[in-house]
Structures are given as structure tokens and as C-alpha cells.
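Lab intake sheet, docking and co-folding queue.

SAMPLE TYPE: protein with bound small molecule
LIGAND NAME: nicotinamide-adenine-dinucleotide
LIGAND FORMAT: SMILES
REQUESTED OUTPUT: full 3D complex as C-alpha cells
PRIORITY: normal
SUBMITTED BY: R.K., bench team

The fields below were copied directly from the construct record.
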Amino acid sequence: MEKPLKIGIIGVGSIAQCHARGFLKDGRATIVNVCDLMEEEAANKATKWGAERSCVDYNEVLKDPDVEAVDILLPPSLHAKVAVQAAEAGKHILTEKPLATTLKDCDEVIAAAKRNHVKLMVCHNQLFYPPHQEAKRLVDNEIGNPIMSTSLLHGGFGASGWREDPVIGGGFLLEACIHRFYVSRYLMGEVKRVSCMTAKSTLELKTEDIVLVNLQFDKNRYGTISANRGAPPALWDDRTEVVGDDGMVIINGVEDCILGGLPLMHYKDGAWKSYMTPRVFGETAEGMEGVPEEVKFTTNEIDNKFVNTFYYVIKHFIDCVVDDKTPFVSGEEGRRLVEIMLAAYKSAETGKVVNV
Ligand SMILES: NC(=O)c1ccc[n+]([C@@H]2O[C@H](COP(=O)([O-])OP(=O)(O)OC[C@H]3O[C@@H](n4cnc5c(N)ncnc54)[C@H](O)[C@@H]3O)[C@@H](O)[C@H]2O)c1
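RESULT FIELD (auto-filled):
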């Protein structure tokens, strides 16, 4: 690429530093405009990331002739409106998950991107987590016939701000459990039926904070997802396991590995094989400057640094723009996940199993 891709970042909250780091590390992009309702924060981040301009109105980013692609890092219900307008302005789009909070909104974003010939990618970042990618290879080749998956999220992160609001945030299931849904589907195949129970641990909550899901996949495969956000503050357990008739795979957490454990384990022929990594506890996007980007994998070494998932997402997004390729997590993929999760909500409301 002769000239760097010029990026506008919309929303500079908790996840923005991970995205900005990805663009800056890749080296094929420059951040030129930064937007947030919090004016000072936007200006500070613009200075930090080397952007020439900052603003409080995202329309200024969309009107900026320099900006070629936008990264939408806003609360979920705002993704669609901004993405449609970005497409109409001819900007390529990377958006945080979920693509949108309704299927109608998903359809409008997909149609606008097609109409305007811009790339649309949803940040399902855990699909770019090397232990998940290696687990996929193992599930497809090294555990016999996959029978059942178990994926869970137990976090002590509570809910505040827009996450408490079911309309803006979409709810705990849609906003946070989405990682567990797309990872399960990636490993096990397409979802056919879903049943779900949701609950609130205290009556004052506006959205569910406990989620229990059963999934039926193609090929007579099954899975469960269980999640809650009321665990002790420092605890983060987001494990996934797949058992087949000739082996088993455990991905021991993405944002943290419990017991300081190994990121990926594989059982076959009566023995466990593990994948080692120099895990850095308490790492943040700020503190990752020294991590080598081109990690060399051997059979027992794997990059399990959560912050690098965003770097891999962004690398792929830039590849797609530069080489005119369809993103791995396209608008249609993003829509499908929303469809499955809305079916789970429907099941929770009706008490019935829902075909999807
Ligand atoms: N992939 C992941 O692991 C991951 C992790 C965290 C968050 N996310 C997603 O990223 C998105 C943002 O989450 P967050 O945790 O960074 O939220 P946040 O609340 O920390 O940040 C959102 C920012 O958007 C700004 N904002 C809101 N409305 C705006 C508007 N109209 N114009 C300009 N700025 C506006 C807010 O001022 C805030 O700074 C959500 O979709 C969330 O689901 C993904």
C-alpha cells in the first residue's frame, strides 16, 4: 500500500485503546480524526494517537474528506445509524459487536454497505484469538466426531451506564454473551435450534445478568452457554470446551486463564497435550508495547494475549480494504449472530425452543 489508510475513530471509551493500538502497530494506517461526546477525552486521544483532528459530532468524521474508513466504538444501539451514514459517505466500516440490536438495523447496514461498495466488518475479535483458531483445527481433525460444547462467562464486571439500559446496550446476552455464541458456532457449526433461560440476580436490574442457553447445531451436535456477571470483581472465567468421541479440547479463557493455567489443552489417545505461553497477568493495552507482533508458533507455543485479538482483527480489516476482499466477519455474519441471540431472547420470553 503506497499511502496509509486514513482512519476516523468514533467513540473513545474502554475498548478504543485496544483498537487504536491495532492500527498504530499495523503501520499501514494513520488515525486522522477522533470523535467522542466527551470533548476533552476525544482531544486527548487524538494527541495520543497522532490524529490531526478531534470532534464531538460524528458527522464531522463522516464529512472529513481525509477519512477513508471508520471504526465505530459506540454503545450497541448506535452502531447501525452511524454505520449506515458512514456507508453513504463512502467510508469503509469496522464496527464493534454486535452489528446492531435489531435485524432491521442489521439489514439496513448491510444494504448501505453494498450500495456504496464499502467494506463492512464486525469485530468478533475472539475469532482472531490463536488458541480458538488452533482449537478449530483440533475440533475439525483431532477429536473424532464433536458431540458437545460448553462455553461460559463468569465475570465480576457488573453493569453500569449504557450496559444497564436494555434499549441502548441490547442486554447482557446480546452485548457480552455474543463472544460465547460466535465462538461456539465457529467451533461446532451452524446453529439450528436454541432454548434459553434468563434471570436477574436482583429485582432492581433493568437487564438480565444470568443467561443459560442450549444450542443444537447441524450434524446432531449440541452445546451450552452459561454466563453471569455477578462473580467476584477480580474473577474472569470465559472458558470453552468441546468433547468429541475421540478427544477433547479446552480453551482455558480468553481475557484471563483460570488458575494461571495453560491457554489450550488437547486430550487424545489417553494423554493431555498443552500449549504454553508466556502469559502476562494484569496486562493492558497500554502496557503491551514490548510484545512482538509476529509471533512464531510451535506445537507448544501460542499467542494468547487478549489485546492482540484486536490487532489481528484490524490487520485483517486493512487487508480486506487494500486487497478488496470480503471480511471474515462480514455484515451477513454479524447479522446471523444477532438473529441467533434474538432467537435466544424469544425462547426466554416464551419458554419454547426456537428454530433459527
Ligand atoms: N470486543 C470486545 O471484547 C469488547 C469489549 C468492550 C466493549 N466492546 C464493544 O465496544 C463498544 C463500546 O464499548 P465501550 O466499553 O468502549 O463503551 P464506553 O461506554 O466505554 O465507550 C463508549 C464511548 O462512546 C461515546 N459516545 C456515546 N454516544 C456517542 C455519540 N453519539 N457520538 C460520539 N461518541 C459517543 C461515549 O462518550 C463513550 O466514550 C460496544 O459495542 C461494546 O459492546 C467490545
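REVIEWER NOTE: The pocket of nicotinamide-adenine-dinucleotide is lined by residues 10-16, 35-38, 58, 73-76, 78, 96-97, 123, 125, 161, 175 (CB under 6 Å).
SIGN-OFF: pending second check by T.M.
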